[in-house]
């Protein structure tokens, strides 16, 4: 299972990850000060980061062919975990009408976060095994849709639209990178968007808030819109405006106390803006951008060495994290309606933090395998 490459992780990439992780650790603590038990959030986040780093370090020692060999079973296990959330309490856990968690007493596990990396590992294996079918009109798309829908159905039943969108887009973009016909991909992508729109509308007719959140966000100018569905966006923008260029100082923000819902998770970028200003926001964006550019370069390098599985995995990881990062930033800046998207490496949360660090550990391993001597490289995938 473990195999040495004789190479150290890319120091610039590793340092950038640790810098952003440390910054997020500090900001999540500051953002949680609005809660009575804020120190418990700090302690839990510290534990999550420690577990995530330990698992990421372990991933540095595991060759990519191990993931390729067991990708199918990891995907099946993730599907089983997605189904387990529907068991009655104390196993399943429902919060605010959404059933997304498995209760482990001291830790609430969210299987959708595991599915994000499981989908990438399995899709990469699928793209390598079905390389010829993927490039045939419709054949690759039909098979991919079967894989995606197996996860999407469970995610939609959990009322987790955000994870459904991220996982589906990541898989389809990986399919595009593998050479599927653009015409068919555009047709399927449009069909999926239409299906999501219909699902949102039906959910709204049955009393769901998602359709209202979407329509009320766009119905009129934000600042004269009295709907409670845009309250969160208004407070996020007020916080960013208060921060100006330099911010009001760490811990000195006021939006997190009573005004801004979920300041330590989905809306943490607004707290970054309020307390560290535009400079802090640019620091987060540029540092994450550097990590992603390095990641895509690693994926491209693996492809040049004809290690297609490693390349697809690296590309999938960077696509997933880039999508989630972009959507969270857009949500905090009032460009799209608010939705449950944690900011990678910054937001508070156990499942999200742990699996993001695991994914980055795998990305570093891909680079290590690319730089090792040929006698070992020929065994890699």
Q: How is this structure best described in words?
A:
The chain has 381 residues and is mainly α. Helix content is 69%, strand content 3%. It contains 15 helices and 3 strands. It has helices spanning 11-31, 38-59, 64-84, 111-129, 131-134, 139-157, 161-177, 182-205, 210-218, 231-243, 255-258, 268-304, 308-332, 350-371, 374-377, and strands at 92-95, 98-103, 108-109. The longest helix has 37 residues, at 268-304. The two termini are 15 Å apart.
Q: Strand fraction band?
A: under 5%
Tally of helical segments: 15
How are helices and strands ordered from N to C? Answer: HHHEEEHHHHHHHHHHHH
Question: Main sheet: which strands, in order across?
Answer: 1-2-3
Q: Structural class from helices and strands?
A: mainly alpha
Number of strands: 3
- The helicity comes to 55-70%
In round numbers, the mean pLDDT is 87
| CA-CA gap between termini | 15 Å
Q: What can be said about the biggest beta sheet?
A: 3 strands, antiparallel
Low-confidence stretches: none
Shape field = globular
Radius of gyration, whole Å: 21 Å
